[in-house]
Every structure is written in C-alpha cells, then in structure tokens.
Write a structure and sequence with these properties.
Radius of gyration: 19 Å
Structural class: alpha+beta
Order of helices and strands: HHHHHHEHEEEH
Number of helices: 8
Number of strands: 4
CATH topology of the largest domain: Peroxidase, domain 1
CATH architecture of the largest domain: Orthogonal Bundle
Number of domains: 2
C-alpha cells in the first residue's frame, strides 16, 4: 500500500459526516468541497505536513496552531478552518487525510456518483481519461469522479481503486504474476 492510500476507520467517518452536516446546515457545501480538495492537495504535496500531523513529539498546541495557520494561508472558509482546528484539538490531526477522503466519498454518494482513484505509469491524456470515465460509468451504472496520480514504478498500465474494489492492470503486477508462475513451473 502506498503512502497516499488511506484506511478509513470509524472516527474519520464520523468527523467527515459531521463536516458534511455542518456544511449543509451553513449552506456552504460547495465551498467546503473546494476547501477539502485544497487541503487534501496540501497533504498530498507536503510530506512535512503529514509528518507534523502524525508526530507524537509535536505538542497539541503547536499542531493546532500550525494547522489553523495553514488553513488561513490557504484561504479556507471559516467553517473549514474551524473544523480543522477542532479536529486537531481533539487529537485527531493524523486522521485529517482519512477524514477528507471520507468526506469526498460521502459527497460523491450523495450526488449519485463514485470516486475512482486511478494510478497510472504515465500521466493520462484527456482522451484516455474520458474513455476511462465512460467505461467506468458503463461498468458501475453511475457517474464516476476520477482522481489521478502517477507512479512510474508501475512500468505501464494502471490501477483503479473504487471504494474497497481494486482493478490492477499494471505491467508491474503482470510481470510479478509471470515471475511467480515461472517459479512454480
């Protein structure tokens, strides 16, 4: 499992549900969705951010201060900034990536779509992305939002993760399967 994969437990789901309800009550769901994407991008791009959130050495007050300062610098909505601060105060800073992923899944389900995380060996072209979306829509019977990432270690092909399902058509996996088959022969 790569570092970007997040296993979501019960607590992150409850926090994500709370954020969803707060955003709906405040009639700012679209703004919070945008903020969640921004924050998720910040965590994905900065290993220091993830290390800070996970570190037992950094004090609770420092984590709260750092996360609220980052939220302010990223110009996140007041509701989102307050939520991030509350999560940190409740000693759940390490769960923020899981909370964000769970929030996006909940929003997608409410819209009647699903989120597919696609990892490919090279960046997908617009035509490939369109084709992938239409094939996934046919297969699943509902619209699909696609999040892409690149992992050159795959050598070729791609991996699609939708919820708990994993479709692996990467060259790396096929070569490993062939290697195992040759050892058995």
């Amino acid at each position: 499992m790569s570092q970007s994969d997040v296993i979501t437990g019960e607590a992150p789901k409850r926090y994500a549900q709370a954020l969803l309800e707060l955003a709906e009550d405040a009639k700012s769901l679209k703004t919070v969705e945008k903020d969640v994407k921004t924050l998720k991008g910040i965590f994905a791009k900065s290993s220091d951010m993830t290390e800070m959130a996970n570190s037992p050495v950094i004090s609770l007050d420092d984590k709260v201060s750092a996360l609220t300062a980052i939220a302010k610098k990223a110009k996140l909505n007041a509701l989102t900034s307050q939520f991030v601060g509350t999560v940190a105060k409740n000693r759940r800073a390490a769960d923020i990536p899981a909370i964000l992923a769970s929030f996006e899944d909940m929003v997608a389900r409410r819209k009647g779509s699903q989120v597919a995380k696609v990892t490919s060996a090279q960046k997908l072209t617009a035509a490939q992305l369109t084709s992938l979306k239409s094939n996934l829509k046919k297969s699943l019977g509902r619209p699909v939002d696609v999040e892409t990432s690149v992992d050159p270690d795959l050598l070729g092909g791609f991996i699609v993760r939708i919820g708990s399902r994993l479709y692996d058509s990467s060259l790396k996996t096929k070569l490993e399967d062939l290697k195992i088959a040759l050892k058995e022969a």
